[in-house]
C-alpha cells in the first residue's frame, strides 16, 4: 500500500490517506510513534520505521512560503493566508484550516477565501476569524480568489 501522511499538528499528528480516503492516523507518543487504523494501534520507534512498514510518504511541510513580487503569502494545507501562521491545524469536523497570527493569540483565523452572508448580501472574506464563520452562513474555503469570486457573483445574482 502506498499512502501519504499530511501534517495535522507539526511533529505530533498526521492524517494517513490512500486514494484520497482516510485510512488511519499517526501520533507521537512518549516512546516513539503510534499508527492507528480501524481501532487498533501499532507502535514504532521512528517515522522512517513507519515509512518502511506501512509504506507511507510524509509531507515535509504543511506551511509553505511563496517568494515573488506579490505580497507575501503563506499556505496552510494549500489554502493561502497573508500573515505568518502559528499553530496551524486542519479541523476535520468543520473542514477548515485554522491558525493563529502570533504565538500567544486567542483569536483563530481560517486560511483561504470565503463568502459570508452579512447584512442581506454575500461578501468576500480573506482569512476571516473563526468566530465570524461560526456566526454567519458561509461558503469556503476556496484556494483561489477566482473561484470565490465566481460563487460570490452567482450568489448575489440569486438574491437580486
Strand order of the largest sheet: 5-4-3-2-1-6
Shape: elongated
Total strand count, please? 15
| Integer average pLDDT | 83
Radius of gyration: 18 Å
Largest sheet: 6 strands, mixed
* Total of DSSP H or I helical runs spanning 4+ residues: 3
Q: What proportion of the residues is helical, as a percent range? A: 10-25%
Strand content: over 45%
Report what the structure shows.
It is a single chain. The chain starts with a strand and ends with a helix. Strand 7 and strand 8 form a beta hairpin. The model has no long low-confidence stretch (mean pLDDT 83). Helices cover 18% and strands 49% of the residues. Strands 5-4-3-2-1-6 form a 6-stranded mixed β-sheet, covered by helices on one side. Strands 7-8-9 form a 3-stranded antiparallel β-sheet, with no helix packed on it. The chain folds into 2 domains: 56 residues, no CATH class; 96 residues, no CATH class. It contains 3 helices and 15 strands. With 160 residues, the chain is of the alpha+beta class.
